[in-house]
């Protein structure tokens, strides 16, 4: 993940341009290939995207990308202790009666 700030500037005139990212810019931001984002979009997976403008360019909101990354972190048991199977309560096996 890039070392830059994850928040889009809101006060500058260029904020509109940084609040929405093209597929290539979103892929660069996430450290993925544009092809991966296209495949995910086709499969309705990955971060939310939408079409913008008369030509219908696929765009991503920067804040939606950040939220999607946070969701991925929380869904991973290595990042979320509540999902770690080693933290689950121990389950005892029922004892089996042996009949002769």
UniProtKB/TrEMBL annotation:
Any idea where the Helix-turn-helix domain is?
Answer: 20-72
Region listing for Disordered, in residue ranges: 73-100
Q: Which InterPro entries match?
A: DNA-bd_dom_put_sf, HTH_17, WH-like_DNA-bd_sf
Basic and acidic residues bias spans:
90-100
Q: Which domain of life does this protein belong to?
A: Bacteria
Name it.
Helix-turn-helix domain-containing protein
């Amino acid at each position: 993940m890039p070392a830059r700030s994850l928040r889009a500037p809101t006060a500058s005139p260029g904020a509109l341009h940084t609040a929405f990212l093209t597929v290539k810019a979103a892929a660069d931001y996430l450290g993925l290939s544009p092809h991966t984002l296209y495949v995910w979009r086709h499969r309705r997976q990955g971060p939310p995207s939408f079409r913008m403008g008369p030509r219908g360019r696929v765009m991503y909101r920067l804040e939606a990308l950040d939220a999607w990354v946070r969701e991925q972190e929380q869904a991973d048991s290595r990042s979320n202790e509540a999902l770690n199977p080693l933290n689950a309560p121990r389950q005892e096996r029922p004892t089996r009666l042996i009949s002769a």
